[in-house]
Amino acid sequence: AKDSGGGEFREYEPSLHASAEERRQLEFSLRNALKNEELSLNYQPVVDANTEEVVSFEALVRWNSDVHGPVSPGKFIPLAEDTRLIVPIGKWVMQQACCEAAQWPGHIGINVNVSPEQLTEPDFATSVVHALSHSGLAAERLEIEVTESIFLRDANVARRALEQVMALGCSVALDDFGTGYSSLGYLRKLRFSTIKVDQTFVQGASQASAESLAIINAVVAMARSLGMTTTAEGVETAEEAEMIRSMGCNKIQGYHFGRPMLAAEARQVFEREEAR
Ligand code: C2E
Ligand code: CA
Ligand code: CA
Ligand code: CA
């Protein structure tokens, strides 16, 4: 799955669950997806674990292809990363998410996922500056989500890019914590504001899988001593939410509090909260 440079030869990529031919067709369509306005954003609420009030929304990209119908991000994001189409797509996501969030009350933040391929583009920080100034969104309301994979290649380039946007006032979250090639050393390399505990540890937390609970407890304690907050992902039931809250996680995200939704539905969420 490595970039073959000229783009002529590609290794079989099992994680895509697609044949070479299907992949070729998807890539062709994805090249035109932005221009054809087939991409859109959903927004999923992140709530304060104690008050259950919405603190931010995570922007999640959706692709409804004219040819293929809806294609899941689990399928097209890896393809977009391999082909570097994630660079223009990611810029569009950043612009769109900042413009939407700028319409929200000032205390509500926006989380935007950023792939390693975006961070190694020389103009990443500039594109964030543009998205902020064009939308009028305060930098403090933008949190960028990255995974440990940014440390695998060009780690210093990625880190410098993130430090540039942190200097603007943005924060950076470490996403999918515990699923990658976890080395705790990564936590020393960047001042992450938040560690997002992956949903694989969270799901079934109420059925008290002793191992998952021990891991969540340890991550919460570690984050706290590093001055970072924790967000638990994939919380689907009230029992899981209560378990997570009692373990001291700061924020919760998951179907129990809200699925990824349209921008208009997201606005209704905090309008309803304000009316209370
Ligand atoms: P992620 O960043 O870890 O996003 C969370 C995923 O978990 C989302 O899947 C969300 O819909 C799903 N989820 C949220 N709550 C629950 C729950 O309670 N239960 C379960 N089972 N799932 C839940 P989605 O939207 O399919 O996105 C998949 C991945 O695609 C994301 O994982 C992220 O890595 C990537 N992605 C999505 N949008 C973007 C984007 O704009 N840029 C980049 N670079 N990657 C993106
Ligand atoms: Ca994320
Ligand atoms: Ca995640
Ligand atoms: Ca994930």
What does this entry show, briefly?
With 276 residues, this protein is an alpha/beta fold. The protein is 42% helix and 19% strand.
Helix-strand blueprint:
Blueprint: H1 20-33, E1 39-48, E2 54-65, E3 69-71, H2 73-82, H3 86-101, E4 109-113, H4 116-119, H5 124-135, E5 142-146, H6 155-168, E6 171-177, H7 186-189, E7 194-197, H8 199-202, H9 210-225, E8 229-232, H10 238-246, E9 251-253, H11 263-275
Parallel strand pairs: 2-4, 4-5, 5-6, 6-7, 7-8, 8-9
Antiparallel strand pairs: 1-2, 1-9, 2-3
Q: What are the main properties of this structure?
A:
276 residues, alpha/beta, eight-stranded mixed β-barrel, 42% helix, globular, disordered N terminus, binds ligand C2E, binds calcium ion
Give your account of this protein's structure.
Helix content is 42%, strand content 19%. It has helices spanning 20-33, 73-82, 86-101, 116-119, 124-135, 155-168, 186-189, 199-202, 210-225, 238-246, 263-275, and strands at 39-48, 54-65, 69-71, 109-113, 142-146, 171-177, 194-197, 229-232, 251-253. The chain has an eight-stranded mixed β-barrel, surrounded by six helices. Strand 5, helix 6 and strand 6 form a beta-alpha-beta unit. The radius of gyration is 19 Å and the shape is globular. The structure holds ligand C2E and calcium ion (3 copies).
H/E element order: HEEEHHEHHEHEHEHHEHEH
Q: Reading side by side through the largest sheet, how are the strands ordered? A: 1-2-4-5-6-7-8-9
Radius of gyration: 19 Å
Structural class: alpha/beta
Number of strands: 9
> What separation lies between the terminal Cα atoms?
51 Å
Bound molecules: ligand C2E, calcium ion
| Mean pLDDT value | 90
Give the CA-based shape: globular
